[in-house]
Amino acid sequence: MTTTATLTERYISATIRSLRPEVQDDVRAELEASIADAIDARLEQGETPSAAERSVLTELGDPGILAAGYADRPLHLIGPKYYLVWWRLLKLLLIIVPICAFGGVMLGQLIDGAPTGEIIGTAVVAALGSIVHVGFWVTLVFFVLERTGADTGVRWSVDQLPEPTQNGAGRADAIASIVFLVLGAGAVFWDAFVGFFPTEGAPIALLNPALWPWGITFLLALFVAEALLAVVVYAQRRWTIGTAVVNTALAVVFAAWSLTLLLHGALINPEFLSFVFTDNGVTDETMRILTVITGFALVAFPLWDIVDGWIKTARARRS
């Protein structure tokens, strides 16, 4: 059974996570002692424990600034006032914007039927351009704020402290992964024997019935492998390079398998496509666009799974 971390634990965790591993224990011990002494002093003055803890941590200030002091790392952009706000916003945007730009341009090029080289080149240029623009415009805004002395209204408080991370190896993550995979396997059987798409007659299956038995058996084997991987990660209490490699291999196999079947018209039930689209006057061009979007999703989700696994592995190695 897990317990909620105290504000002090969250504050110390947020402070030491960016420090070198060899100094984290010393800084943790020093902070625990100094915070405890400051809280005791306030308790003697009649404050409640919760109010004393919040007051002490608020006086200590942003844990990012405190960590920079321990690491002897200067916080300067044009000046120190908005450095951490600028840096946190910039990191967030540099993760989100280039990925969205790359994916959006690639999807648009695929829909337009552009050649492979043009698709990749245009998407890469868009991603690189977004990095340049994000870096320039965000920095320019904070440069103006710093020089004009404007007040952004941003104030640090203990409510912003993050919960300590478990490197993706928590029980909740393992249970969620297994439940999701069990629901996925159940959906495959439900689709085959009951059908998801209702009609005036018998429901129509979404997946191609020709995938039975070997294609569906292969898909279920991937589900079982993913579930076993979740159990292994939980048993180790952390992601490792080995589990990240296995996770990458499973994601690549699923993407390649599903995308190959989609491109050969063997993934989706032809009867379903005919009933929903062809019989209702949907043109071949629209069908091509729908196929491109489906294929994009079949690649995007495994790709995110791969990135997520390696991010968790990097966090585990730093802890």
Automatic annotation (TrEMBL):
Record's keyword annotation contains Cell membrane: no
Keyword Transmembrane helix: yes
Keyword list, A-Z: Membrane, Transmembrane, Transmembrane helix
Domain of life: Bacteria
Cross-referenced InterPro entries: Perm_prefix_1
Spans traversing the lipid bilayer: 89-111, 123-145, 174-199, 211-233, 245-267, 287-307
UniProt-recorded name of the protein: Uncharacterized protein
Source organism per UniProt: Microbacterium foliorum
